[in-house]
Amino acid sequence: MTAVALARGEPLPDRSSTYTDPDTGATVHQLTSDASINHSFFFLNPSFRPGHDDQLGFVTHRGDKPQICLHDAQTGGSTCLTDREGVHAFSPVFSPDGKCIFYTTNTAEVWRIDLDSLSEDCLATLEGAGLGEAGASPDGRYIVTACKRESGHGVYVVDVEARSGRVIHETDMKIIHPQFHRADPDIIEYAGDPCPRLWTIRRDGSENQCLYPSTDKEFFVHESFLGTSDDLIFTVWPYRLAKLNIHKRELETVAEINAWHMASSIDGTKIVCDTNHPDIGLLLIDPATGAYKPLCTSGSSNQGTQWQQDHPAGADVWSSIRGEKGETLSWMEMKVDNVYGPQWTHPHPAFDVAGARVVFTSDRTGTPQMYVVDVSQ
């Protein structure tokens, strides 16, 4: 029987529930329950809606295509927001004012959903390209995403007000996960894949700089900004959580722990991460001291063959799964990637604005669902 896609505005029959984590005693809320793939937004784009503490965005695949939804903890119900084909499942991001969600499609479009009216409009299209996940500038004026087209890989910036986009940088090196500085809309950090990993560029395309000359002997991955500071946090997989100031460029160790995906609270006083090989659950880390403590178990299957290694996937790995045309691929471009994913088997934890709750995904029940865990102070 073929699954039927949800209609825009359609309520979801999911029922939320609450349980106590058996290892830490933390209160955990399961927000989705359908026997299909349901996951939070990418960890760089927290699922919590700004200005609406009890509303969270997520993506469901129950209609055989990714659809963006909104959960309301006050009512315990969820609503489908999109019925468009080709939504990039890990692309959604809330605007900083919480009024809309931006996302990309497999036809290289950048869309905006108004969360009051559910009306949508296309802000820009990059013909002949593929796009990654969206990232919003702290003032909400711009959207950044990685792009790939025949001439190479690049950083694509969309001016929301002008409704126009421009490739500000293009290179032969694969580019993934661009993100704005959390306090400066003129600074964009992006990842070179596989290495050198850490780069910054100004929004106008000037001052493209490699921050650290990492090699394929060092598995740098999953960088994000520490609060609104100039420090990036990331893993040197699987050995340690590290940080690097984008101006001083001196590599520092935060904690000798197998932090996997990590995100900080907006005030930069705490970091949450998931773990893998071994999975010791979600951890809370003090970035000032490196001290850490368990938050809760995730129960996620944490799939991906490369996470058993201490180096990025090389050309030999990608050549074994490359498309018929010989394209350079990453997990963003594959329906199911078993090298670094599937991504919905990873927790991808992220804080709310107050740093009081953490959203994550887990397939502990057999299918991926979205959860929120309360953070005890």
Q: What does this 3D model show about the protein?
A:
This protein has a single domain, classed as Methylamine Dehydrogenase, Chain H (7 Propeller), CATH 2.130.10.10. The chain has one helix and 31 strands. The chain is mostly beta strands and 377 residues long. The model is unreliable at 324-331 (pLDDT under 50). A hairpin with a 6-residue loop joins strand 25 and strand 26. The relative contact order is 0.13.
Chart the SSEs and their pairings.
Layout: E1 11-12, E2 17-20, E3 27-30, E4 38-40, E5 55-60, E6 67-72, E7 77-80, E8 93-94, E9 100-104, E10 109-114, E11 120-125, E12 130-131, E13 135-136, E14 142-149, E15 152-159, E16 164-171, E17 174-180, E18 187-193, E19 198-202, E20 209-210, E21 219-225, E22 231-237, E23 240-245, E24 251-255, E25 259-264, E26 271-275, E27 282-285, E28 292-296, H1 315-319, E29 350-351, E30 357-362, E31 369-374
Antiparallel strand pairs: 1-7, 2-3, 3-31, 4-5, 5-6, 6-7, 8-9, 9-10, 10-11, 12-14, 13-14, 14-15, 15-16, 17-18, 18-19, 19-20, 21-22, 22-23, 23-24, 25-26, 26-27, 27-28, 29-30, 30-31
Question: Which key terms come to mind for this protein?
Answer:
377 residues; mainly beta; Methylamine Dehydrogenase, Chain H; 5-stranded antiparallel beta sheet; 1 helix; 31 strands; globular
